[in-house]
Design brief:
496 residues, alpha/beta, Rossmann fold, five-stranded parallel beta sheet, three-stranded antiparallel beta sheet, single chain
Protein backbone atom coordinates (compact mmCIF):
# COMPACT_ATOMS: atom_id res chain seq x y z
CA UNK A 1 0.00 0.00 0.00
CA UNK A 2 1.31 3.44 -0.87
CA UNK A 3 -1.01 6.40 -0.57
CA UNK A 4 0.70 9.78 -0.76
CA UNK A 5 -2.38 11.43 0.75
CA UNK A 6 -1.84 9.50 3.97
CA UNK A 7 0.74 11.66 5.71
CA UNK A 8 -0.40 11.59 9.34
CA UNK A 9 -1.11 9.00 11.98
CA UNK A 10 -4.79 9.95 12.04
CA UNK A 11 -5.20 9.46 8.29
CA UNK A 12 -3.46 6.10 8.57
CA UNK A 13 -5.88 4.94 11.25
CA UNK A 14 -8.87 5.95 9.12
CA UNK A 15 -7.47 4.00 6.14
CA UNK A 16 -7.84 0.74 8.07
CA UNK A 17 -4.20 -0.09 7.41
CA UNK A 18 -3.18 -3.21 9.36
CA UNK A 19 0.26 -3.62 10.91
CA UNK A 20 2.27 -6.76 10.12
CA UNK A 21 5.58 -8.04 11.39
CA UNK A 22 8.25 -8.46 8.72
CA UNK A 23 8.01 -12.23 9.02
CA UNK A 24 4.25 -12.01 8.41
CA UNK A 25 4.89 -9.87 5.33
CA UNK A 26 7.35 -12.39 3.94
CA UNK A 27 5.02 -15.28 4.68
CA UNK A 28 1.90 -13.67 3.20
CA UNK A 29 3.63 -12.52 0.01
CA UNK A 30 5.33 -15.90 -0.44
CA UNK A 31 1.97 -17.66 -0.10
CA UNK A 32 0.49 -15.35 -2.75
CA UNK A 33 3.34 -16.07 -5.16
CA UNK A 34 3.17 -19.81 -4.64
CA UNK A 35 -0.60 -19.83 -5.20
CA UNK A 36 -0.18 -17.81 -8.40
CA UNK A 37 2.60 -20.12 -9.61
CA UNK A 38 5.01 -17.15 -9.77
CA UNK A 39 8.78 -17.60 -9.64
CA UNK A 40 9.84 -16.54 -6.16
CA UNK A 41 13.61 -16.16 -6.66
CA UNK A 42 14.09 -14.83 -10.17
CA UNK A 43 17.45 -15.68 -11.75
CA UNK A 44 18.44 -18.44 -9.32
CA UNK A 45 19.27 -21.56 -11.33
CA UNK A 46 19.84 -25.14 -10.15
CA UNK A 47 18.23 -24.85 -6.71
CA UNK A 48 14.60 -25.51 -7.65
CA UNK A 49 14.46 -28.91 -5.97
CA UNK A 50 16.94 -28.35 -3.17
CA UNK A 51 17.80 -24.94 -1.71
CA UNK A 52 14.77 -22.87 -2.71
CA UNK A 53 12.15 -25.22 -1.20
CA UNK A 54 14.12 -25.14 2.06
CA UNK A 55 14.16 -21.33 2.03
CA UNK A 56 10.42 -21.19 1.30
CA UNK A 57 9.74 -23.55 4.19
CA UNK A 58 11.88 -21.40 6.48
CA UNK A 59 9.98 -18.25 5.49
CA UNK A 60 6.63 -19.96 6.03
CA UNK A 61 7.87 -20.98 9.47
CA UNK A 62 9.04 -17.46 10.32
CA UNK A 63 12.62 -18.60 10.76
CA UNK A 64 15.89 -16.74 10.67
CA UNK A 65 18.13 -18.35 8.06
CA UNK A 66 21.75 -19.45 7.76
CA UNK A 67 22.87 -20.15 4.18
CA UNK A 68 25.84 -22.48 4.44
CA UNK A 69 27.95 -23.27 1.39
CA UNK A 70 31.18 -22.76 -0.51
CA UNK A 71 32.00 -19.57 -2.36
CA UNK A 72 30.17 -18.72 -5.54
CA UNK A 73 26.93 -20.54 -4.65
CA UNK A 74 24.57 -17.53 -4.90
CA UNK A 75 24.08 -17.15 -1.14
CA UNK A 76 24.16 -13.35 -1.13
CA UNK A 77 22.09 -13.22 -4.33
CA UNK A 78 19.33 -15.23 -2.65
CA UNK A 79 19.39 -13.01 0.42
CA UNK A 80 19.04 -9.88 -1.71
CA UNK A 81 16.13 -11.36 -3.64
CA UNK A 82 14.19 -11.91 -0.42
CA UNK A 83 13.44 -8.17 -0.40
CA UNK A 84 10.96 -8.79 -3.24
CA UNK A 85 8.77 -10.68 -0.77
CA UNK A 86 8.24 -7.56 1.34
CA UNK A 87 5.25 -5.25 0.89
CA UNK A 88 6.09 -2.58 -1.65
CA UNK A 89 5.60 0.27 0.84
CA UNK A 90 5.07 0.46 4.61
CA UNK A 91 4.45 3.53 6.78
CA UNK A 92 6.90 4.72 9.45
CA UNK A 93 7.11 7.63 11.88
CA UNK A 94 8.81 10.58 10.18
CA UNK A 95 12.26 11.21 11.66
CA UNK A 96 12.54 7.89 13.50
CA UNK A 97 15.89 6.13 13.30
CA UNK A 98 14.23 2.76 13.89
CA UNK A 99 11.55 2.79 11.16
CA UNK A 100 8.87 2.79 13.86
CA UNK A 101 5.51 1.35 12.90
CA UNK A 102 3.06 4.24 13.52
CA UNK A 103 0.59 1.85 15.14
CA UNK A 104 3.24 0.01 17.16
CA UNK A 105 5.89 2.59 18.11
CA UNK A 106 9.11 1.11 19.44
CA UNK A 107 11.58 3.92 20.14
CA UNK A 108 11.45 6.60 22.83
CA UNK A 109 11.52 9.20 20.03
CA UNK A 110 8.40 7.81 18.33
CA UNK A 111 6.46 7.40 21.55
CA UNK A 112 7.26 10.97 22.68
CA UNK A 113 6.32 12.35 19.25
CA UNK A 114 2.94 10.58 19.28
CA UNK A 115 2.26 11.75 22.84
CA UNK A 116 3.00 15.29 21.74
CA UNK A 117 1.23 15.43 18.35
CA UNK A 118 -1.30 12.61 18.51
CA UNK A 119 -3.09 11.98 15.22
CA UNK A 120 -1.11 14.81 13.61
CA UNK A 121 2.09 12.82 13.94
CA UNK A 122 3.76 12.87 10.48
CA UNK A 123 4.45 9.59 8.75
CA UNK A 124 6.52 8.58 5.73
CA UNK A 125 6.31 5.61 3.36
CA UNK A 126 9.34 3.35 2.99
CA UNK A 127 9.93 1.31 -0.17
CA UNK A 128 10.93 -2.31 0.28
CA UNK A 129 14.35 -1.70 -1.30
CA UNK A 130 15.13 0.60 1.62
CA UNK A 131 14.39 -2.19 4.06
CA UNK A 132 17.43 -4.30 3.26
CA UNK A 133 20.67 -3.95 5.23
CA UNK A 134 23.82 -5.95 4.51
CA UNK A 135 27.01 -6.16 6.54
CA UNK A 136 30.18 -8.06 5.70
CA UNK A 137 31.54 -9.66 8.85
CA UNK A 138 35.16 -8.68 9.39
CA UNK A 139 37.33 -9.07 12.50
CA UNK A 140 37.13 -5.32 13.19
CA UNK A 141 33.32 -5.23 13.48
CA UNK A 142 32.36 -4.10 16.99
CA UNK A 143 29.32 -4.42 19.22
CA UNK A 144 28.81 -0.67 18.74
CA UNK A 145 28.59 -1.19 14.96
CA UNK A 146 25.90 -3.85 15.25
CA UNK A 147 24.04 -3.03 18.45
CA UNK A 148 24.91 0.54 19.39
CA UNK A 149 26.73 2.69 21.96
CA UNK A 150 26.35 5.76 24.12
CA UNK A 151 26.85 8.93 22.09
CA UNK A 152 28.48 11.63 24.25
CA UNK A 153 27.95 14.29 21.59
CA UNK A 154 24.21 13.60 21.58
CA UNK A 155 24.18 13.75 25.38
CA UNK A 156 25.96 17.10 25.35
CA UNK A 157 23.82 18.64 22.62
CA UNK A 158 20.56 17.51 24.21
CA UNK A 159 21.84 18.18 27.75
CA UNK A 160 20.91 14.68 28.83
CA UNK A 161 22.32 12.45 31.52
CA UNK A 162 24.12 9.28 30.47
CA UNK A 163 21.33 7.48 32.34
CA UNK A 164 18.82 8.64 29.72
CA UNK A 165 18.27 6.13 26.92
CA UNK A 166 17.99 8.97 24.42
CA UNK A 167 21.80 9.30 24.49
CA UNK A 168 22.09 5.91 22.77
CA UNK A 169 23.26 5.81 19.17
CA UNK A 170 21.70 2.66 17.77
CA UNK A 171 23.73 0.30 15.59
CA UNK A 172 22.87 -1.43 12.36
CA UNK A 173 20.56 -4.08 13.80
CA UNK A 174 18.16 -1.77 15.69
CA UNK A 175 18.13 0.51 12.64
CA UNK A 176 17.10 -2.55 10.63
CA UNK A 177 13.83 -2.83 12.56
CA UNK A 178 11.14 -4.07 10.12
CA UNK A 179 13.88 -4.92 7.60
CA UNK A 180 15.95 -7.82 6.30
CA UNK A 181 19.40 -7.81 7.90
CA UNK A 182 22.15 -9.87 6.27
CA UNK A 183 25.54 -10.72 7.77
CA UNK A 184 27.86 -12.23 5.17
CA UNK A 185 30.71 -14.56 6.18
CA UNK A 186 29.44 -15.00 9.73
CA UNK A 187 32.44 -17.10 10.92
CA UNK A 188 34.67 -14.05 10.41
CA UNK A 189 32.78 -12.24 13.17
CA UNK A 190 34.67 -12.34 16.46
CA UNK A 191 33.11 -14.85 18.93
CA UNK A 192 32.44 -12.09 21.50
CA UNK A 193 30.49 -10.18 18.83
CA UNK A 194 28.53 -13.30 17.93
CA UNK A 195 27.57 -13.62 21.60
CA UNK A 196 26.04 -10.14 21.44
CA UNK A 197 23.50 -11.49 18.93
CA UNK A 198 22.10 -14.14 21.30
CA UNK A 199 19.39 -12.10 22.99
CA UNK A 200 18.40 -10.23 19.86
CA UNK A 201 17.65 -13.50 18.11
CA UNK A 202 15.93 -15.16 21.05
CA UNK A 203 14.51 -12.50 23.35
CA UNK A 204 14.42 -9.29 21.32
CA UNK A 205 16.24 -7.21 23.94
CA UNK A 206 19.61 -5.46 23.71
CA UNK A 207 22.21 -4.30 26.19
CA UNK A 208 24.26 -1.16 25.59
CA UNK A 209 26.68 0.16 28.20
CA UNK A 210 24.48 -0.81 31.13
CA UNK A 211 21.18 -0.03 29.39
CA UNK A 212 18.99 -3.11 29.32
CA UNK A 213 16.41 -2.18 26.70
CA UNK A 214 13.47 -4.36 25.89
CA UNK A 215 13.11 -3.64 22.19
CA UNK A 216 10.91 -6.21 20.44
CA UNK A 217 12.75 -5.75 17.15
CA UNK A 218 11.18 -7.19 14.03
CA UNK A 219 14.15 -8.24 11.93
CA UNK A 220 14.47 -11.03 9.38
CA UNK A 221 18.04 -12.25 9.86
CA UNK A 222 19.87 -13.97 7.03
CA UNK A 223 23.42 -15.17 7.65
CA UNK A 224 25.81 -16.59 5.08
CA UNK A 225 28.89 -18.68 5.77
CA UNK A 226 31.29 -21.24 4.38
CA UNK A 227 31.11 -24.56 6.24
CA UNK A 228 32.93 -23.73 9.46
CA UNK A 229 35.29 -26.69 9.34
CA UNK A 230 36.32 -25.70 5.80
CA UNK A 231 37.95 -22.45 6.90
CA UNK A 232 40.70 -21.48 9.30
CA UNK A 233 39.38 -17.97 9.70
CA UNK A 234 36.85 -18.73 12.40
CA UNK A 235 33.66 -20.57 13.24
CA UNK A 236 30.10 -19.95 14.29
CA UNK A 237 29.75 -20.29 18.05
CA UNK A 238 27.42 -23.16 18.86
CA UNK A 239 24.83 -21.23 20.91
CA UNK A 240 24.39 -18.75 18.06
CA UNK A 241 23.96 -21.51 15.52
CA UNK A 242 21.39 -23.07 17.84
CA UNK A 243 19.36 -19.85 17.80
CA UNK A 244 19.24 -19.66 13.99
CA UNK A 245 16.21 -21.77 13.26
CA UNK A 246 16.93 -22.93 9.68
CA UNK A 247 20.35 -23.85 8.35
CA UNK A 248 20.21 -24.38 4.58
CA UNK A 249 23.01 -25.98 2.58
CA UNK A 250 23.78 -24.58 -0.85
CA UNK A 251 25.71 -26.37 -3.59
CA UNK A 252 27.27 -26.01 -7.02
CA UNK A 253 25.20 -26.82 -10.14
CA UNK A 254 25.07 -30.62 -10.44
CA UNK A 255 25.06 -30.76 -14.25
CA UNK A 256 26.84 -29.12 -17.17
CA UNK A 257 23.51 -27.91 -18.56
CA UNK A 258 22.58 -26.04 -15.38
CA UNK A 259 26.08 -24.62 -15.15
CA UNK A 260 25.82 -23.36 -18.74
CA UNK A 261 22.49 -21.72 -17.96
CA UNK A 262 24.02 -19.85 -15.03
CA UNK A 263 27.03 -18.71 -17.05
CA UNK A 264 24.90 -17.54 -19.97
CA UNK A 265 22.72 -15.57 -17.60
CA UNK A 266 25.53 -13.94 -15.62
CA UNK A 267 28.30 -13.34 -18.17
CA UNK A 268 28.54 -9.72 -19.34
CA UNK A 269 29.32 -9.97 -23.03
CA UNK A 270 29.89 -6.85 -25.09
CA UNK A 271 27.25 -6.33 -27.78
CA UNK A 272 29.85 -6.23 -30.59
CA UNK A 273 31.36 -9.45 -29.31
CA UNK A 274 27.94 -11.11 -29.31
CA UNK A 275 27.41 -10.10 -32.96
CA UNK A 276 30.87 -10.86 -34.35
CA UNK A 277 31.93 -13.91 -32.33
CA UNK A 278 30.27 -17.31 -32.63
CA UNK A 279 30.48 -19.42 -29.47
CA UNK A 280 29.58 -23.04 -30.36
CA UNK A 281 28.03 -25.41 -27.87
CA UNK A 282 31.29 -27.37 -27.71
CA UNK A 283 33.14 -24.37 -26.30
CA UNK A 284 30.44 -23.76 -23.69
CA UNK A 285 30.70 -27.42 -22.67
CA UNK A 286 34.48 -27.17 -22.34
CA UNK A 287 34.31 -24.09 -20.12
CA UNK A 288 31.83 -25.71 -17.73
CA UNK A 289 33.68 -29.02 -17.79
CA UNK A 290 36.86 -27.22 -16.77
CA UNK A 291 35.14 -26.02 -13.59
CA UNK A 292 33.86 -29.54 -12.88
CA UNK A 293 37.38 -30.92 -13.37
CA UNK A 294 38.76 -28.26 -11.03
CA UNK A 295 36.32 -29.31 -8.28
CA UNK A 296 37.50 -32.91 -8.64
CA UNK A 297 41.21 -32.19 -9.13
CA UNK A 298 43.81 -33.52 -6.71
CA UNK A 299 45.68 -30.24 -7.14
CA UNK A 300 42.79 -28.03 -6.02
CA UNK A 301 41.68 -27.66 -2.41
CA UNK A 302 38.17 -29.12 -2.39
CA UNK A 303 37.43 -27.49 0.96
CA UNK A 304 37.88 -24.07 -0.59
CA UNK A 305 35.57 -24.79 -3.50
CA UNK A 306 35.62 -23.54 -7.08
CA UNK A 307 33.33 -20.56 -7.53
CA UNK A 308 30.71 -20.40 -10.26
CA UNK A 309 32.38 -17.08 -11.06
CA UNK A 310 35.15 -19.10 -12.73
CA UNK A 311 32.96 -20.04 -15.69
CA UNK A 312 31.30 -16.62 -15.81
CA UNK A 313 34.59 -14.72 -16.08
CA UNK A 314 35.97 -17.44 -18.37
CA UNK A 315 33.18 -16.76 -20.87
CA UNK A 316 33.94 -13.05 -20.76
CA UNK A 317 37.68 -13.60 -21.22
CA UNK A 318 37.11 -16.13 -23.99
CA UNK A 319 35.12 -13.65 -26.07
CA UNK A 320 37.77 -11.01 -25.49
CA UNK A 321 40.51 -13.43 -26.56
CA UNK A 322 38.72 -14.03 -29.87
CA UNK A 323 38.06 -10.31 -30.30
CA UNK A 324 41.74 -9.50 -29.71
CA UNK A 325 42.76 -12.12 -32.28
CA UNK A 326 40.42 -10.57 -34.85
CA UNK A 327 41.76 -7.10 -34.17
CA UNK A 328 45.35 -8.28 -34.61
CA UNK A 329 44.73 -10.27 -37.78
CA UNK A 330 42.09 -8.05 -39.37
CA UNK A 331 39.23 -10.56 -39.26
CA UNK A 332 35.75 -9.05 -38.85
CA UNK A 333 34.01 -12.16 -37.55
CA UNK A 334 35.21 -15.44 -36.12
CA UNK A 335 34.28 -18.63 -34.32
CA UNK A 336 35.84 -19.48 -30.97
CA UNK A 337 38.71 -21.98 -31.23
CA UNK A 338 40.33 -24.37 -28.79
CA UNK A 339 43.39 -22.11 -28.88
CA UNK A 340 41.28 -19.24 -27.55
CA UNK A 341 40.96 -21.18 -24.31
CA UNK A 342 44.34 -19.64 -23.47
CA UNK A 343 42.27 -16.60 -22.60
CA UNK A 344 40.46 -18.34 -19.75
CA UNK A 345 43.62 -19.26 -17.84
CA UNK A 346 43.55 -16.01 -15.77
CA UNK A 347 39.96 -16.87 -14.83
CA UNK A 348 41.09 -20.27 -13.58
CA UNK A 349 44.25 -19.28 -11.71
CA UNK A 350 42.38 -16.55 -9.88
CA UNK A 351 39.52 -18.80 -8.79
CA UNK A 352 41.23 -21.92 -7.47
CA UNK A 353 43.15 -22.53 -4.26
CA UNK A 354 45.87 -25.12 -4.71
CA UNK A 355 47.02 -27.79 -2.30
CA UNK A 356 50.75 -28.42 -1.83
CA UNK A 357 51.05 -30.66 -4.92
CA UNK A 358 49.29 -28.03 -7.00
CA UNK A 359 51.64 -25.32 -5.77
CA UNK A 360 54.55 -27.52 -6.86
CA UNK A 361 53.07 -27.80 -10.35
CA UNK A 362 52.27 -24.11 -10.48
CA UNK A 363 48.87 -22.48 -11.11
CA UNK A 364 49.54 -21.99 -14.83
CA UNK A 365 50.28 -25.63 -15.57
CA UNK A 366 47.42 -26.76 -13.33
CA UNK A 367 45.07 -24.57 -15.39
CA UNK A 368 46.42 -26.05 -18.65
CA UNK A 369 45.95 -29.57 -17.27
CA UNK A 370 42.38 -28.80 -16.21
CA UNK A 371 41.56 -27.61 -19.73
CA UNK A 372 43.16 -30.78 -21.10
CA UNK A 373 41.07 -32.99 -18.82
CA UNK A 374 37.94 -31.11 -19.85
CA UNK A 375 38.80 -31.80 -23.51
CA UNK A 376 39.25 -35.50 -22.78
CA UNK A 377 35.97 -35.68 -20.86
CA UNK A 378 33.97 -33.92 -23.57
CA UNK A 379 35.68 -35.69 -26.47
CA UNK A 380 33.52 -38.80 -26.13
CA UNK A 381 30.38 -36.66 -26.38
CA UNK A 382 31.40 -35.59 -29.89
CA UNK A 383 33.47 -38.49 -31.24
CA UNK A 384 33.71 -42.25 -30.58
CA UNK A 385 35.66 -43.21 -27.48
CA UNK A 386 39.19 -44.24 -28.62
CA UNK A 387 39.45 -46.65 -25.69
CA UNK A 388 36.62 -48.76 -27.13
CA UNK A 389 38.60 -49.53 -30.28
CA UNK A 390 41.63 -50.47 -28.19
CA UNK A 391 39.65 -52.90 -26.05
CA UNK A 392 37.81 -54.52 -28.95
CA UNK A 393 40.89 -54.47 -31.19
CA UNK A 394 38.85 -52.88 -33.94
CA UNK A 395 40.08 -50.60 -36.71
CA UNK A 396 40.05 -47.08 -35.32
CA UNK A 397 38.62 -44.24 -37.44
CA UNK A 398 41.51 -42.18 -36.08
CA UNK A 399 44.21 -44.48 -37.48
CA UNK A 400 44.87 -42.48 -40.70
CA UNK A 401 45.52 -39.37 -38.59
CA UNK A 402 47.79 -41.29 -36.22
CA UNK A 403 49.67 -42.80 -39.19
CA UNK A 404 50.23 -39.34 -40.70
CA UNK A 405 52.01 -38.19 -37.55
CA UNK A 406 53.95 -41.48 -37.39
CA UNK A 407 55.64 -40.50 -40.68
CA UNK A 408 57.63 -37.77 -38.87
CA UNK A 409 55.04 -35.13 -39.64
CA UNK A 410 54.73 -32.32 -37.08
CA UNK A 411 51.93 -29.79 -36.92
CA UNK A 412 52.28 -26.39 -35.26
CA UNK A 413 49.11 -24.44 -34.52
CA UNK A 414 49.49 -20.96 -33.08
CA UNK A 415 46.66 -19.37 -31.15
CA UNK A 416 46.51 -16.06 -33.00
CA UNK A 417 46.59 -17.09 -36.67
CA UNK A 418 44.00 -15.51 -38.98
CA UNK A 419 40.80 -17.34 -39.92
CA UNK A 420 42.15 -18.05 -43.40
CA UNK A 421 45.48 -19.43 -42.18
CA UNK A 422 43.77 -21.42 -39.41
CA UNK A 423 41.58 -23.25 -41.90
CA UNK A 424 44.43 -23.72 -44.37
CA UNK A 425 46.64 -25.27 -41.70
CA UNK A 426 44.02 -27.75 -40.51
CA UNK A 427 43.35 -28.91 -44.07
CA UNK A 428 47.01 -29.97 -44.42
CA UNK A 429 46.37 -33.04 -42.26
CA UNK A 430 44.79 -35.76 -44.42
CA UNK A 431 41.74 -37.54 -43.02
CA UNK A 432 41.15 -34.92 -40.31
CA UNK A 433 38.24 -33.42 -42.18
CA UNK A 434 37.00 -36.91 -43.15
CA UNK A 435 36.55 -37.94 -39.50
CA UNK A 436 34.71 -34.72 -38.68
CA UNK A 437 32.38 -35.04 -41.68
CA UNK A 438 31.68 -38.69 -40.82
CA UNK A 439 30.42 -37.90 -37.32
CA UNK A 440 29.20 -34.32 -37.83
CA UNK A 441 28.03 -34.10 -41.45
CA UNK A 442 25.58 -31.22 -40.88
CA UNK A 443 27.93 -28.95 -38.95
CA UNK A 444 28.41 -25.40 -40.20
CA UNK A 445 31.61 -24.78 -42.14
CA UNK A 446 33.32 -22.59 -39.53
CA UNK A 447 32.43 -24.94 -36.67
CA UNK A 448 33.77 -27.87 -38.69
CA UNK A 449 37.27 -26.43 -38.35
CA UNK A 450 36.78 -26.08 -34.61
CA UNK A 451 35.91 -29.79 -34.47
CA UNK A 452 39.05 -30.58 -36.48
CA UNK A 453 41.16 -28.72 -33.93
CA UNK A 454 39.23 -30.35 -31.10
CA UNK A 455 39.90 -33.75 -32.66
CA UNK A 456 43.65 -33.15 -32.53
CA UNK A 457 43.57 -32.09 -28.88
CA UNK A 458 41.32 -35.01 -28.01
CA UNK A 459 43.59 -37.58 -29.64
CA UNK A 460 46.51 -36.09 -27.73
CA UNK A 461 44.62 -36.30 -24.43
CA UNK A 462 43.98 -40.00 -25.14
CA UNK A 463 47.72 -40.43 -25.85
CA UNK A 464 47.23 -41.36 -29.49
CA UNK A 465 49.38 -38.50 -30.73
CA UNK A 466 51.86 -36.25 -28.94
CA UNK A 467 51.22 -32.66 -27.91
CA UNK A 468 53.57 -30.09 -26.43
CA UNK A 469 53.40 -26.43 -25.58
CA UNK A 470 55.27 -24.07 -27.86
CA UNK A 471 55.45 -20.30 -27.87
CA UNK A 472 51.85 -19.04 -28.29
CA UNK A 473 50.38 -22.38 -29.26
CA UNK A 474 50.77 -26.15 -29.50
CA UNK A 475 52.80 -28.60 -31.53
CA UNK A 476 51.28 -31.97 -32.41
CA UNK A 477 53.56 -34.86 -33.34
CA UNK A 478 53.96 -38.61 -33.23
CA UNK A 479 53.53 -39.86 -29.66
CA UNK A 480 56.66 -42.03 -29.75
CA UNK A 481 58.71 -39.10 -31.06
CA UNK A 482 57.33 -36.89 -28.30
CA UNK A 483 58.42 -39.35 -25.63
CA UNK A 484 61.97 -39.33 -26.99
CA UNK A 485 62.12 -35.52 -26.82
CA UNK A 486 60.92 -34.64 -23.34
CA UNK A 487 63.53 -31.92 -22.59
CA UNK A 488 61.51 -28.73 -23.05
CA UNK A 489 62.90 -25.23 -22.93
CA UNK A 490 61.37 -23.36 -19.97
CA UNK A 491 60.43 -20.52 -22.33
CA UNK A 492 57.64 -22.60 -23.88
CA UNK A 493 55.60 -22.07 -20.73
CA UNK A 494 55.68 -18.30 -21.05
CA UNK A 495 52.53 -18.38 -23.18
CA UNK A 496 49.73 -20.86 -23.76
Amino acid sequence: MNNNKIATLGALKKSNWVSKTIKEELRDNLIAKLKNKEKVFEGIVGFDNTVLPDIERAILSGHNILLLGLRGQAKTRIARLMVNLLDEYVPAIEGSALNDDPLKPLSRFAKDLIDEQGDKTPIKWIHRQERYVEKLATPDVSVADLIGDVDPIKAANMRLSYADERVIHFGLIPRSHRSIFVINELPDLQPRIQVALFNILQEGDIQIRGFNLRLPLEVQFVFTANPEDYTNRGSIVTPLKDRIESQILTHYPPTIELSKEISRQEARINVKQSININVPELIEDLIEETAFEARASEYVDEKSGVSARLTITARENLNSAAERRCLIKGDKKTTIRIGDLAGIIPSITGKIELVYEGEQEGPYLVAVQLIGKAIRKQFVNYFPDPEVFKKKKQQSPYQPIIDWFAKDNNFDLLNDVSNKDYQKLLLTIPSLVDVVETYHPKTKADEKFLLMEFLLHGLAEFSLIGKSLIQSGFQFKDLFGSMLNMDFDDDVYDEY
